[in-house]
Amino acid sequence: MKPDDIDLQLQHGTHGWDYARLSVNRTVHEFTLTGIFNDPLEGLAESAVRLDAGDATATFTWYEEPGRFDFTFTRIPTAQHLDRVTIVDSDRVNVAPIEFTVKRAFWLKLVRAELSKIMLLATDEHYAKNRTVKELPWDAIQALCGKISP
Known about the structure:
Number of strands: 7
Order of helices and strands: EEEHEEEEHHH
Low-confidence stretches: none
Number of helices: 4
Oligomer: single chain
Helix content: 25-40%
Number of domains: 1
Strand order of the largest sheet: 4-5-6-7
CATH architecture: 2-Layer Sandwich
Structural class: alpha+beta
Largest sheet: 4 strands, antiparallel
């Protein structure tokens, strides 16, 4: 697998649900995310800000009902431009973690593109009317989108 054979799609859904689709080497992983325990978009944005700042590791957690996915990004010491990503399904027994390698800069561009899309859609009257756009983690998203070059 190439470390840029990855795609991320985010959807800010109605009634407090968010959806994510992560494609790794043509294998698609889908997440139905609840905001009950944390804001999934905020965690994603904040971890990306840490990666962009050069931190060696960054983590965030996405919750489903039931279920929890813990994401860990760890810089590879012998290839500083790459991160080893491990996604552990913390609530299911005997489920292998999702593991892959990604170019850090590429991952940051994916995250920025998806969060920027949500910010732009939030300015649409119909979209905003049917979602809780006032509760979006604006500060975290703007911190990320203002920091990463296109």
